[in-house]
Amino acid sequence: MNPENLRIVLVGTSHPGNIGSVARAMKTMGLSRLELVAPECAFPHEQATANASRADDVLEAAGRHDNLDAALAGCGLVMGLSARPRRITTAEVLDVREVGRRVVAEAESRPVALLFGRERSGLTNAELDRCQALVHIPANPEYGSLNLAAAVQVVCHEVNMARGAGVVAPTRQSASAQDMEYFFEHLARVADRVGFLRKHNPEILMRRLRQLFYRAAPDDHELQMLRGLLANVEPHLPELPDAAQRAGRKDE
Length: 252
Description:
The chain contains eleven helices and seven strands. It is of the alpha/beta class. α5 crosses α7. It is globular and about 60 Å long.
């Protein structure tokens, strides 16, 4: 595994001390790629430095991004941590030990991102939609509350253990997260033009379609075939009415 290929991505962190504690957790397991998305606290900050406990190099090299797209640019696999029940998605949920093995295998040849959400509310549904799989950390069912740094420490520990076990990279590589996003945008556009999305709840339907294709894990060639199909169908579809026309029809 190439350690530089694993990104620990913190979304909307509200306390600088937690960023420092995460940096310390990462460095103890030999990881250094930290990415911050729209932190809701001051950074750099003396509390972050204090909690990092000599992991200053991880803090100084941390990337800062206004949005998730920038933090995930180039990633082949994205997995998100969530403790909430997922009643509205069929996303694959992986045990943290399996996540360690999968990260090591994938990060041998391409970037992988692990997403950690806000201290109080975690990741939003839209952010979890960007994940091919969700990560579950087994804990006391009566008190399963892990703070941010503890969750990062557990996951990084499993990655480090899998790295030492000599996990082999997969022979077949699925399409990158960014290419999957382009496909989903294309799919949503075509589905809308044929009226399919308007007959159902668009948000939930697209979430289920995302998870269907995430489970299928198409490779680059298969994804190009699907994009080609959509591209050939699209010119034969009627143009969508603009927003004003749609509003006019509702008023009739």
